[in-house]
Structure formats: structure tokens, C-alpha cells
Write a structure and sequence with these properties.
A seven-stranded mixed beta sheet has the order 2-8-7-6-5-3-4, with helices on both faces. A four-stranded antiparallel beta sheet has the order 11-12-15-14, with helices on one face. It folds into two domains: 122 residues, Alpha-Beta Complex (Aspartate Aminotransferase, domain 1); 243 residues, 3-Layer(aba) Sandwich (Aspartate Aminotransferase, domain 2), CATH 3.40.640. The longest helix has 21 residues. The protein has eleven helices and 15 strands. By secondary structure, it is α/β, with parallel strands linked by helices. Helix 2 packs antiparallel against helix 7, helix 4 runs parallel beside helix 5 and helix 8 runs parallel beside helix 11. It is globular.
Length: 391
């Protein structure tokens, strides 16, 4: 625990950050890795032969390998490409899928606007019907309720408002693949604290945001190589080609060695990619005690909130991400009141307008989303302040 707190030594006394579901804080090793890139080998990756560029290439390749290892996937089947964020990655995939291969596109009711809107746009653009599936209170999908024949399925494996997991993901993947469909996973909320829900499961693509994984602002697509057969290349530019004629070009991604370039048009965020590698090394180096302390913190806060008759939790169980509203109190006013006490938390519908507002009919919510940077004294501060407000 002491080691973790040293990595977040820039947090001031009494400052409580509870917005990790939006973006996590970055530990010192990640900040140092980015700083080292800019002051020791600032260079373009995959384009130059001088020493700085070779160092950058080595570290970027290492990050690709670390991502696959973290997800329990093999490089002989999967490729890692870097983008802007989860939203960009999902849209990049859907905008290049060949609609003739698919009979429908499916998502679920508890999705972030990233897949929810992107699937809507795909349906409008291609005239492929769209279907919205129900999610159970535990986050699962009742697979037998749906026909996945030749479907594109785009769903999260952990919710961004209560953390519920798609714990029957393997069952869903099997059903989709047996029916000739493909499945794309929004893993933005799973990667930091719930990677177990998708580790080793061979979906067709995984999109996530590094900035929710104790890393810099960056997007990642991990995709099954076979997916290219069902895609057109429609977003092209520098770094993607081996040759260009007057009216034609040869893509680098035709070979396995440079297949990642299929989704990497233009210059990449080399420093941020290297920062992601540092974040994964940092996470891999945490002890069981570090994770036990983290679990104790979020369970302690959840238990406190669940005991109040005035607090209405969306969660069905304890999770690092918890959303609620306080009876008779506007959540935005609550957020402002907490801010005056140096407690930073998110209010609103968290880009899940359809489900939280129109399905559940809830008022704007308060969300506490904890991270590994949180100290036991943070939880005590929040409990003391909330206790005063509730009284």
C-alpha cells in the first residue's frame, strides 16, 4: 500500500478523486515513461532508422505484446492497433465492416453512448436492422432469448454506472460464432479492475481506452486477424502503405508483420503508447495485498451508502463504480457540495441516457468510481461529509 501511495504522491492531503470511471489517475512510473520519451528519444516510430527511433519502435512493440498478454490472447490470432479512444475504435470498426455479411446489428440497453449510437448509425447507414437486447440485473444476457444469425453484436463487458459484468460472455461468444456472427466488446470499464471477465475469451474485437487503465489518453483495438475478410479499408493515410501509384496503393497490412497498420492511419501517439506499456507493467507488479486494500475501500464505501434510507443505489452489489441519488437532493448540487470539500465525483447520466433516464426513469445520478490511488482516509472523508449532508 505504501508503494502505491508513493506512486500518487502528487495527490494533496484531503484531495479525494472518485472519477476513475471517466479517467484514472496516472502513477509515477507512467508519468516518468512519457517524460523519458520526450526528453530521451522523442522520435517517430516505424519510420526512421536512427537510434532514437529504434528505441521508440522497441517500446511500442513491447506495449503491443503486453496488451495481448494482459488479455490472455495469442499474437498468432490477434493484432493490437492504437487509436484515439473506445468510441473512435468502435466507430472505426463499424464504418469499415462490409454490411453484406450481416443480417442485423445488436447491442444492449445498458450501453454507453459509444456503442449505442455507433450501432444506430451503422443501421441507418447500411439499412441493416438494429436490435437492443435486455441485460439482467447481474449484467448477463439471456442468450436463448435472441437469434444471432449473421449478426454484429456490440456490447460492454462491464457497465460504466454500476460495474455489472457480462459474466456469461463465453456463452454469448459461442452462440454468436455458431450462428455466423461476430462480437465486438466495449472493454473500457473492464480493463482496470475486471479484466477477468474477458481474459482469454476469443471475441472478434476488443476496444478500450488506456486512460481508464492508469495510462495516458489513448484508444486500443485488439482484433482477430480473420476479421479483415469482412472489412473494407475506408480510412487511409500515412503509415499504412508500402507503395502508391497514381490511382492505386499497396497496403502494408496485407502481411501479418504490419497488420496493425490497418487501423493506424497517420502518425501515432508514441509517448502515450509507451505510457500504456508502463501502466501494464505497473499493474502486473501489484501485490495481492494492494488489491485487497482496494476491495476493502470500495466495499466500505458501498456498505455505508447502502445503510442510508435516503440513498438510492443503482448497484445490486458492491463495485468500485457505484451510482446513486439522494432523496430530495439534486445530484448536481450534491456534486458541487462535495467539490467544496475537495471530493471529486461525476454527476448526471454518464452517457447512458437511454437506460438510466428512459428505461429506469431515474433522476440525474451521483457516481463514485474508486481507483487504486484511493486511501482509507479518503473513504473516511467521504463518509463524514456524506453523513453531514444526509442529516
Amino acid at each position: 500500500m505504501v508503494c502505491i501511495m508513493r506512486d500518487f504522491d502528487y495527490l494533496g492531503e484531503g484531495e479525494v478523486y472518485l472519477d476513475g470511471a471517466c479517467q484514472s489517475l496516472r502513477p509515477r512510473p507512467v508519468i516518468d515513461a512519457i517524460n523519458d520519451y520526450y526528453v530521451e528519444h522523442n522520435s517517430c516510430g516505424e519510420r526512421v532508422k536512427y537510434k532514437w527511433g529504434l528505441i521508440t519502435d522497441e517500446k511500442v512493440e513491447e506495449t503491443r505484446e503486453l496488451v495481448l498478454k494482459y488479455l490472455g490472447l495469442k499474437s498468432k490470432k490477434y493484432t493490437v492497433s492504437f487509436t484515439l479512444n473506445t468510441t473512435y475504435g468502435i466507430n472505426l470498426l463499424l464504418n469499415q465492416l462490409k454490411p453484406d455479411y450481416f443480417s442485423k446489428i445488436m447491442t444492449s440497453e445498458i450501453e454507453h453512448n459509444s456503442p449505442f449510437l455507433a450501432t444506430m448509425a451503422f443501421s441507418e447507414r447500411t439499412s441493416v436492422p438494429r436490435e437492443v437486447m435486455a441485460r439482467n440485473d447481474d449484467g448477463t444476457i439471456t442468450v436463448s432469448d435472441y437469434d444471432f444469425a449473421d449478426a454484429v453484436v456490440v456490447v460492454n463487458c462491464a457497465s460504466n454506472f454500476d460495474g455489472r459484468k457480462l459474466s456469461n460472455l463465453s456463452e454469448l461468444v459461442k452462440a454468436v460464432h455458431n450462428a455466423g456472427g461476430i462480437i465486438i466488446i466495449d472493454a473500457a470499464q473492464a480493463m482496470a479492475h475486471s479484466v477477468d471477465v474477458l481474459k482469454g475469451i476469443e471475441v472478434d474485437a476488443i476496444c478500450f481506452s488506456a486512460h481508464k487503465l492508469y495510462a495516458p489518453s489513448l484508444g486500443v483495438i485488439v482484433w482477430r486477424d480473420e476479421l479483415v475478410d469482412k472489412m473494407n479499408v475506408g480510412f487511409v493515410g500515412g503509415g499504412m502503405v508500402d507503395d502508391v501509384q497514381l490511382d492505386s496503393y499497396a497496403l502494408s497490412s496485407e502481411g501479418k508483420e504490419h497488420r496493425y497498420t490497418r487501423f493506424e492511419a497517420g502518425l501515432q501517439a508514441w509517448g502515450e503508447i509507451i505510457g500504456l506499456g508502463a501502466a501494464l507493467k505497473w499493474l502486473n507488479g501489484l501485490s495481492k495485498n494492494d488489491w485487497r486494500n482496494f476491495e476493502h475501500n470500495y466495499k466500505d464505501l458501498y456498505e455505508f451508502l447502502s445503510k442510508s434510507d435516503k440513498v438510492h443505489l443503482v448497484n445490486n452489489e458492491a463495485n468500485p463504480t457505484m451510482s446513486f441519488y439522494v432523496e430530495g437532493l439534486d445530484s448536481h448540487l450534491l456534486g458541487a457540495a462535495l467539490s467544496r470539500e475537495n471530493i471529486m465525483a461525476r454527476t448526471g447520466y454518464f452517457c447512458v441516457h437511454y437506460y438510466l433516464d428512459h428505461v429506469l426513469g431515474l433522476p440525474p445520478l451521483m457516481r463514485f468510481s474508486l481507483g487504486l490511488h484511493n486511501r482509507p482516509e479518503d473513504i473516511d472523508i467521504v463518509k463524514n461529509v456524506m453523513e453531514k449532508i444526509l442529516k
